[in-house]
Amino acid sequence: MWGAVVVGVGTAGCVRIRDMLVPLPGSPAANLSVKGFISRRSLDPIQGVSQISAEEAVSREDIHVAFVCTENVLHEDNIRTFLQAGKHVCVEYPMTMSHRAAVELWDLAQKKGVILHEEHIELLTEDFKALKREIQGKILQEGTLHFTGGALKPGFGFQAFSGIARLTWLVELFGDLSVTAATMEEDSGNNYSKMTAKLLTSDNKPLTWIEVRGPSLPRTKNINFHFESYTLTQIPPASRGDVGLFMQDLIHFSAKLTGQVSAEELHKEKTRVLHCLELAERIQQLALK
Question: What is the mean pLDDT of the chain?
Fold first, then answer.
């Protein structure tokens, strides 16, 4: 069994606790056992799991894994703390607020001989899988991905990082990208922001990624992908999967812990994560110039 601690008990942290308490039978996730949670607040037990200190978590020999579910800007320090203690780490995206920091953390994980995993449940959704099947074999000419959502809370970071799930979609669908331009419009008085990033595929086909955040905005993704003889303007409808997204991610992370994920797949994931963080950093640099 792998003893685990959950760092941060917002929505994601509570889901992590729930899924470890009732894992999918027969899956690698059944090898995880939650030992406690860490919070800056003083809290009563959650789902029967007690609060412990960070100092206790890093020193306990029966805790092997940390799930980092804090605000984005706190991810890096928490990851580093647990990696230094020789613990495996699963972190909600984005891993860090800079490409360089992520490279350093992955180097540290390799030095310590532990797994570092960045959650990307957006790649596990049935609508993304349907979209990927729909465009398979088609040659992109140009495209747009436009996301809207509620106003960001403090601690989520610049939109290229907080919205890196959408950037990851584009990289998974169209391969490595480069950034040619980026802009940021803000109305702080109304808590509104709009980021626009201009991207190019390796074949020099243009992509535009737009993130709009503001109070009461619906959470929606709109696409407009033009192929040689076909235009896709809606994400294909897909039924909901039988296994929850966080449980799927938990199973995948647990499979890494038990050596069931190939070195090739681990390298592919690492390369994608670092590429997306590098793109996000470049978008931020251009948008804030």
Answer: 96
Indicate left, alpha or beta for 155 from its phi (over 0: left) and psi (-120 to 50: alpha).
left
b/e per residue 253-272 (b: at least 16 CB within 10 A): bbbbbeeebeeeeeeebbeb
Residue 99's SS3 state is helix
Mean pLDDT of 75-101: 98
**Residues whose CB falls within 8 Å of the CB of residue 203, separated by 6 or more in sequence, listed in order:** 140
pLDDT one-digit tens code per residue, 40-78: 999 999 999 999 999 999 999 999 999 999 999 999 999
Specify the long-range contacts of residues 23-28, CB closer than 8 Å, at least 24 apart. 23/247, 23/250, 24/243, 24/247, 24/251, 27/251, 27/254, 28/251, 28/254, 28/255, 28/257, 28/258, 28/260
Query: What's the gap between Cα 131 and its chain centre?
Result: 19
Torsion-angle region of residue 175: left (phi > 0), alpha (psi -120 to 50) or beta?
left
pLDDT class for 241, splitting at 50, 70, 90?
A: confident
| Length of the chain as a residue count | 289
- The candidate with the shortest Cα–Cα distance to 197, out of 272, 282, 283, 279, is 283
The residue type of 59 is S
- Whether this prediction's pTM lies above 0.85 is answered by yes
pLDDT of residue 154: 84
**Residue 165 and residue 150: Cα distance in Å, rounded?**
15
